Amino acid sequence: MLEGKRIVLGISGGIAAYKAASICSKLVQAGASVKVVMTESATRFITPLTLQTLSRNPVYLDTFDEFDPAVVAHIDLADHADLVLLAPATANILSKMATGLADDMLSTTLLATTAPIMVAPAMNVHMYAHPAVEHNMELLKRRGVRFIEPGTGLLACGYVGKGRLAEPEDIVAAVVQWFAASRLLEGKRVLVTAGGTVERLDSVRYLTNDSSGKMGFAIAETAARLGAKVTVVAAKTTAAMPAADVELVHVESAEEMLQTVAARYDDADIVIKSAAVADYRPVTRVPGKMKKTNSERLVLELERTTDILQTLGARKKGQFLVGFAAETEQIETYAMDKLQRKNCDLIVANDVTAEGAGFNVDTNIVQVFGAEGRVASWPLLSKHEVAEKLLQLVAERMAAREARE
Ligand code: PMT
User: Which residues line ligand 1 (CB under 6 A)?
Assistant: First the structure.
């Protein structure tokens, strides 16, 4: 199941470190090549020799232990990984990851790697619930780190509560599932729109909206991670540019977005329109800066923009088309209307008045509608989590459609 996969297993210093032996052994049995990095504290709970024997590789302990003079060990290790699995993760290593501290081999490798990181925390119940730890975990989730939830039960410290390392077989199952999912969109071409369009009144003033591009960029990054070839057509954004390997095309107005998306539409397998596109634009754009007049009032005349999504829906030739709906009331009614009118396969509706949802926040609360009505309803999640669930749903529905054809 993990044949050919290169996994770096990081072990930090908690009592659950002894379970890392079982995790290591199961990963190797599943076919993975495992290289282990331990913190000094971890070596108090379990010996490096145990992990060396089980992984059949030398164990990395000290940043300055350079086994091979041809490479720098922590960079080589970081580059080698298809996945870094940190199990168990203590509150201390989570804090180092959140702040970017690199003072030993494990934290340095975690900072140097561009591979996906999966973390299985284990600690005392009160430590796990501490706002500082919660904050660090939230921050790491937003950066794309995946968490394997700890279990609830009797902890080594004597407390009963949440903080027990997930069982080794569940951790390995999560790894197997992650690798399977990472090929989910292999061979697919995904076109995403992000941000808010800008409709100019003159050369310095414009009409726009609050879209930051966070939702669209999260979809683009996630699709790329799942193996797709991704193009993002982005209007005005304030979010950090997508970290993953995606083609980024900048546009400004609804009309430019229409032309850019239409030109790429025939080559796309999946199109996701998360951009907030202006419905109206000024009829005239004044050259230079519009002058103030003596009049107390100024009436702006606006005209309709072309509905890009509707245009794509009318031209659909096998593409899987996903629209978004930014609503403030009667979510289902409006979402279903948009789905049908714009000939979408799915509509993702967000109530943009709800706290933690919609414009310019890192999270979203969405309901997804298909031709049969509501097909999913997700609570407050990070936009990356929404993106992942959405792309899984898209992949499932495309597979079902292909099976029918
Ligand atoms: O960017 P963020 O800050 O992360 O915020 C995310 C978001 C709130 C912008 C996003 O989640 C969202 O809801 N995007 C759609 C916003 C919107 O324009 O909704 P709408 O209900 O007005 O439009 C419905 C659909 O038609 C959308 O897919 C939109 O892209 C599309 N549309 C609308 C008008 C138009 N002229 N052309 C279009 O293609």
Answer: 211-216, 254, 273-277, 279, 305, 307-309, 323-326, 338, 350, 352, 358-360
